[in-house]
Protein: Peptidase M28
Organism: Novosphingobium subterraneum
Amino acid sequence: MNVKLLVSALLLSGAAVPALAEEPVFDAQAVRAHVTFLADDLLEGRDTGSRGYDIAASYVASQFIALGLKPAAADGSFFQKLTVREARLDGAPKLALTYGGKETVLSDTAQLLVRPSLTDAKVSFEAPLVFAGFGFDRPDLGFNDYKGLDVKGKIVVVLTGFPKGTPSELGAHLNSDKAMMAMKRGAIGVISVPTIEDTARRPWDKRVAISDGPAKGWVGADGRAFSRTPGIKGGATLNPDAAAPLFAASGKPLAKILAEANRTGGKPKGFAMKARASLSYAQTWKDVVSENVVAMLPGSDPRVADEFIAMTAHLDHIGVHGKGEDTLHNGAMDNASGVATMIEVARAVAKEKPRRSVMFAALTGEEGGLIGSDYLARNPVVKGEVTGLVNFDMPVLTYMFSDVVAFGAENSTMGKVVAEAATKAGIKLSPDPMPEEGLFTRSDHYRFVQQGVPAVFMMTGFEGPGEKAFRSFLKDHYHQPSDDLKLPFNWDAGALFAKVNYYTVMGLANGAERPKWYAGSFFGKEFAPRAAKAADPVK
């Protein structure tokens, strides 16, 4: 068809010419510009509550203003303020283990790691020990680790991670809920022992190296830090070498238990240990004010304008810490790259005026435990309902990827939209290549999932050079000072990542129906039991 002749004929006839939608062009240099600013040394690693973070937040707000987005915070600004508590150990913790007629005291980080308490300035408790396998209390899902065990008023000892062969997203969720399950059984403390798989992935010395930062959480209007497990007085992680004598005293060799846990489908049985433990430690607190940067784009269709599609990316990183020559953690890939692509997606979406409204949020405190997202999910800023969420976190942009992984895609109708978006962008959608990492519960989207919102979290895929590049970043640069602008960024990959996320967001915002959990989705049943469900897709 000769489009020029057709348009000319229509103009001459006086007929109205429908606007031809133009494909958005994503500028690689625009992505580079955002990352360059956000990962600059002057921002000192964008730690939550720091001056550098505040500068980054003002930068993102200025971008939202330039895009014509509306402020979404309750005070009419772009900043949803929250108080974040930082807790640091005051002196060395003390774990006294009594077994075999003697007491063994552990306090050195070579043997013991303790997370400071956000709710109690001093922690001290003593109780018998009970081993509960992986610590899963979900008989409905085939996990019955507490069967026959009495843990009321006791300290539960559990293995880290989840049984091999468990679907990664289900396993990641249950792993993050261990303290909750222990509390519901009446336990007052939790001691974790790393599995063989966990130790291979994160050796003890590396675990120690990343434990020097404070524990963090948001503080409510009553001045108390929010806690999902108020009945758990405290907990610790025990080096397997230090834990071995404890298990031996109960006639249960730890090596044998760990070997069972390392077998596909292996679920070590629990037992009452012939031991007691007392755990004591103190902490100092520092409360800082930080903010989520929140904006919104009103929907163009009044019938669905109160249904919001959310875009989120964490703005914080881990600041300045450590003992090496370079202690500044710029967080170029984690997560300046995610914020940069979110801004560029927002730029394209703002021009299109989709049917549903869109919320944009650059979040604080992700590195401290998904703090800003939890606060936003529990304290909504939009006058409507968030019906679906797309999260941007640490796309590795050192190679031109040909596939993406969308965590959570199989749980809701969002999966079909993501698959169509990938095809439209000229790439493919791949399954989770690292199920052992449990990534589904480790980024901000998950706090919205826990409030019943379907969500996806996309990362660049493993096809071609992808696996080598991604694993290299995780091994050598993740949460290291080397995550900076010296990395070999492929800015065209940043533009492509923005494109596939744009197609996803627009597909959701313009869809005939709001996103729905699939009927068979564990997360839909767990967190949105009364929500309307879609029929499971035919496999």
Observations:
- The domain at 88-284 is CATH 3.50.30 (Glucose Oxidase; domain 1).
- Residues 332-352 form the longest helix (21 residues).
- The chain has two domains: 28-84+286-528, 88-284.
- Residues 6 and 504 are 32 Å apart (CA to CA).
